[in-house]
Design a protein that fits this description.
globular; 3 domains; 46% helix; nine-stranded mixed sheet; three-stranded antiparallel sheet; Rossmann fold
Length: 371
């Protein structure tokens, strides 16, 4: 990536009035983000999302001046900038409508690992919560050691998940609510430094950004969007972990929760998620693997793919869906409808017939895949 391209990529995130969704619309329209800053005003006015007021903001010299400062910080500290169009950008996060246009990353973990889980919970972790977190990570190590464990480097369950992953030699990445020029809370600095050699630190905030309260909610959407599933170990009824769980649910990602005693304050959130069927109840890593159908993937790895000739009784629509799921493996219903350009009503009937024939199954989060 050239320094000039990086300058413009950072620059677009600094323009007042351009959020992540609008930025992606502009990028899709122009292809080259540098045109936002170099194209003539009369041509920019034709770009959807660029009003005269926003164009005036783009022209402010302070925008690229601040971007230049950040480029210097990135180069000095060996930070990997990940623009939304970069092949190294987390592909799961890219699927989310409000995914950040720019991420800043230090570490050596693959953010597009085959399996990624987010582990979150209360800052006031009990001995039970810590034990469950450690057992979860040990279970991951035993069965799928290449899994990437994501959390938020906060007190309680978050730091327990990171430290358990380091202990088990499992890659772990902390998502920060501030820039990479600081660590919050400071007492977790030594763990954060250790994570750089077995995982990493990730944020969408530039240097000199403080860990302000509102930044943690923004941080939580990355924790939810970057993973295949989110696991809540312990949580009160009102907590950041439940916010993350709600975001994961809105992204149609699988959501799991560990149950606790009915009277335990810091299990109330998990119990509520389970009670209202927002999350599947789990008590071990094996439960997660089963619900995610990862065990079936392992068992079928050595078997040949299901042959289309075995399903001679499929009609044209059913064969079309079967062929798509054979290639894509797992897709949420809305994604299937978009891929096929079918109405959801038409698709739901075909999916029902395929389920009745034992060819596909619906997994948590409304995700469909072959049996």
């Amino acid at each position: 990536m050239s320094g000039q391209n990086l300058l413009y990529q950072i620059g677009i995130t600094l323009v007042k009035g351009i959020g992540n969704i609008t930025a992606k619309q502009i990028i899709d329209h122009l292809d080259d983000v540098s045109l936002v800053f170099t194209e003539q005003k009369r041509l920019l006015e034709r770009v959807p999302g660029l009003s005269r007021r926003i164009i005036a903001e783009i022209r402010r010299p302070e925008v690229l001046k601040r971007a230049e400062q950040e480029v210097r910080f990135i180069e000095k500290n060996k930070i990997m900038p990940l623009f939304i169009t970069s092949p190294a950008y987390p592909k799961r996060l890219r699927e989310c409508a409000d995914s950040p246009v720019m991420l800043y990353y230090r570490g050596n973990a693959d953010l597009n690992a085959a399996k990624v889980i987010s582990v979150v919970g209360t800052k006031n972790a009990s001995a039970y919560g810590r034990d469950m977190t450690e057992q979860l990570v040990r279970g991951v190590k035993e069965k799928f050691p290449d899994t990437l464990v994501i959390s938020g480097l906060a007190y309680g369950i978050d730091i327990c998940a990171h430290r358990a992953a380091l202990q088990e030699n499992v890659a772990t990445v902390g998502v920060l609510a501030h820039g990479l020029d600081r660590i919050y809370p400071h007492v977790h600095r030594s763990t954060a430094v250790e994570m750089l050699n077995k995982g990493g630190l990730l944020t969408d905030f530039m240097s000199e950004t403080n860990p302000d309260r509102q930044n943690f909610v923004k941080r939580n959407r990355i924790i939810a969007g970057i993973a295949d599933c989110t696991i809540v170990v312990e949580s009160a009824e009102k907590s950041g972990a439940l916010i993350t769980a709600g975001i994961a649910d809105s992204y149609n990602r699988d959501l799991f929760a560990y149950p606790g005693k009915a009277e335990d304050r810091y299990s109330a959130g998990c119990n509520s998620l389970i009670k209202y069927r927002k999350a599947a109840l789990v008590t071990s890593a094996q439960d997660v693997f089963r619900e995610m159908n990862w065990d079936a993937e392992t068992q079928s790895a050595a078997r040949p793919a299901v042959q289309r000739s075995l399903f001679t009784d499929l009609n044209t629509e059913e064969k079309t869906v079967f062929d798509l799921l054979s290639k894509a493996k797992n897709l949420q219903m809305n994604s299937l409808a978009i891929e096929l350009n079918w109405p959801v009503g038409q698709l739901s009937g075909v999916l029902f017939e395929l389920e009745m024939k034992g060819i596909i199954r619906c997994k948590p989060g409304g995700v469909y895949g072959l049996v």
